[in-house]
Amino acid sequence: MTIVGTLWILHALYDLVHQRFFINPAVPDWYPVFCASVDVTIGIYVIWLARRTKRPFA
After folding, report:
1. What would the DSSP string read from start to end of 6-48?
2. How far is CA 48 from each of CA 9, 24, 57, rounded to the nearest angstrom?
3. What is each CA distance from 11 to 8, 28, 31, 53, in whole angstroms?
4. Cα(12)–Cα(5) distance, rounded to whole angstroms?
5. Which terminal residue of the chain, N or C, has fewer Cβ atoms less than 10 Å from its own Cβ?
6. What's the average model confidence in pLDDT over 22-48?
7. pTM value?
8. 58: in domain
């Protein structure tokens, strides 16, 4: 789960640099920052959950 959370946070970085490589006029200017902030929030939550519920697999 920690790996998933980390990759989710890395996806936020992708959201922020995506507009430099791809042009999509349908995406509003505020959307990349919004999406990145949601990704970071979810990534941190997933990492927190993973560390909170450390149990051996049965």
Report:
1. HHHHHHHHHHHHHHHH---TTS-TTHHHHHHHHHHHHHHHHHH
2. 13, 34, 18
3. 5, 18, 14, 24
4. 11
5. C
6. 93
7. 0.80
8. no
